[in-house]
Amino acid sequence: MALAPDATQITVQQVLAMLDADFEPMARAVAAGEFALWVGSGISRRAPNLGHLVSAAIEFLRERAVAPATAAIYTPPLEAALRLAGKDPAALAGRFGAPFATWPEHDEIVTILWDQYSRVLDIRVQGEPADFILWDAIDIRQAFSAPHPPSAEHLCIAILVMEDAVHRIASANWDGFIEAAVDRLSGGAQGLLQVVVDPAQLRGQPGRATLLKFHGCIVHATDDPATFRRFLTGSRSQIMRWPEVPEFAAMRHSVIEVAQTLKSLVLGLSIQDNNLQTLFIRAQQIHPWPWPCAPEAPAQVFCEEEIKPGQQDVLRSIYVDAYDQHGPDIEAAAHLRAWAEQVLIALVLKTVADKLITLMGLWLTSCGKAALAPAFANGIVAVRNATAAHASVDSVERSRTPAVNTGVAAWSRMVRMFRNGALPASGDTYEPVSATAAGFLHADQNAQSAGLGRLALALSLLEGGRAAGRWAISPPANDEAGAGAMTATPARPGATPRPVFVVRSASEAIALQGAGAFANDNAVVVHGDDAWRTMVGQSARVPRGAPGRTGRLAPTHVSLAHLVSTSATAVDLQDLFAAEMLL
């Protein structure tokens, strides 16, 4: 029997299968806004490396320990750091004159201190502030001064915020990746994300989602050190004091409220620190989470290779007596064996697909064709799964970030053409399905009138034709508007690839036509309504010659609304659509 894939090997497709099966209650609850995200350094792998920061701190101390004017002050902290690494400073004194990077023991010391990072930050230098190692020796501002672009995890979190699935994020990270992702994908839109570092910011303008940076933020600390430097929490003593210091009371209250009222999806956060474990205990004392939880999702889900000791501590604290009786079952329900990257991509795909299925069903029901919805829902799931298959690890980046960027650009191109009859102003932005969570779409007339249920049907029909071997679907030939949202190539030798556009109504088609998108005269334009057909009196222009013989084509216009109204079954609709496509 083949072994189950580990958290690294598992694909996005395999995670989707889990979200459709054992973890379906969790996925449904995430889409409904019932989960908060708890994020740690595991989702920010491109932040400054802890090993580099440790090495920088020791080199800073070493340089000053060998200078006669400062040796008395800096030798004790250097020796303290070496003792933390299990080394005898006297035995290494002969190396103090050489750069730390050249020491034979360099890698071993850094590896040991990686796990002692909070204690390294607690080393004191006579006459200097308590955070001197972080602020001056490491120079944390410089370390974070040239951040990488957001990674797949941050982009997916931003999408879930824009899709109204995530309302609270509790972050132990100092970096600004999530904020940068929201800013980029939204085109700088205001009001999406309320960032809270200083408890005073809790009284500021609320956002659709709130990011609680309970250990501080290097972006804020760099821009305004007088206000935000003191919130950078990393040393052992800071972590120990955090649950009790009055200065953090408002932040503690907010984070406890998140742990008490929302389920927790834990991504890249070990919860090994005492202050975090204390928060979950206090939340449990206020309002315990039940076990068994079925049919609801479990209160905690950890995306890990295996549940870590600190996470087990949280489960014991939350479920108390139930853990003693049902510990293995609780841990199995709480353990999604995949890293945050695959899980977040899968959650985005499932959330978007489920919204499209809901909107398509609402539209077909309004047309008196509710019976058609289940068959074409399967087509959307097939499109979702095919998209997931492309979310593979890039050999250069060694992540799925390039795949996510490509997917965002392709999706936004298609949706922008559908909604506006134009290309997006930037390939960096994301077009959300709706600003309403999936469970509220039935009451959201604005989301329904936007017409994405018709786009969903078009995608399902196109996928159905592809699966039946009628045509192949591929990305646009280029970035120009004339390349359409995708390319369809008939399944016959020598067939001409044709750009496919999906538009809400005639006004979007006219806008594209005015921009020269149909200039090559071979476009296929799928309309959500029948306005174009009413205008011209037919659903499509007939080719000037038999397709595949002369190669001379004309733009083809297909009306989904007309086809739906004349189809009795899903098979009828699929066949009529194929005939109208004239491929």
Estimate the global geometry from the Cα principal axes: elongated
Spans of at least 5 consecutive residues with low confidence: 539-550
**Taking strands numbered 1, 2, ... along the chain, how are they ordered across the largest sheet?**
3-4-2-1-5-6-7
The share of residues in helices is 40-55%
Mean pLDDT: 95
Write down the Rg.
Answer: 28 Å
Helical segment count: 27
Organism: Sphingomonas ginsenosidimutans
Protein name: SIR2-like domain-containing protein
Describe it.
By secondary structure, this protein is α/β, with parallel strands linked by helices. It folds into 3 domains: 12-46 and 149-341, TPP-binding domain (Rossmann fold); 50-143, no CATH class; 351-581, no CATH class. Helix content is 48%, strand content 9%. The chain is built from 27 helices and 12 strands. It has helices spanning 12-20, 24-31, 50-65, 71-84, 89-92, 106-114, 117-120, 132-137, 140-143, 152-162, 177-185, 218-223, 225-228, 236-241, 249-261, 274-286, 309-319, 321-334, 340-366, 373-389, 401-420, 445-449, 452-467, 506-514, 531-536, 560-565, 570-581, and strands at residues 35-39, 168-171, 193-196, 209-213, 263-267, 300-303, 335-336, 471-474, 486-490, 498-503, 524-527, 556-559. A 7-stranded parallel sheet has the order 3-4-2-1-5-6-7. Strand 5 (263-267), helix 16 (274-286) and strand 6 form a beta-alpha-beta unit. Helix 10 (152-162) packs across helix 11, helix 10 (152-162) packs parallel to helix 19 (340-366) and helix 10 runs parallel beside helix 21 (401-420). The radius of gyration is 28 Å and the shape is elongated. The chain starts with 11 loop residues before the first helix and ends with a helix. This is SIR2-like domain-containing protein. It comes from Sphingomonas ginsenosidimutans.
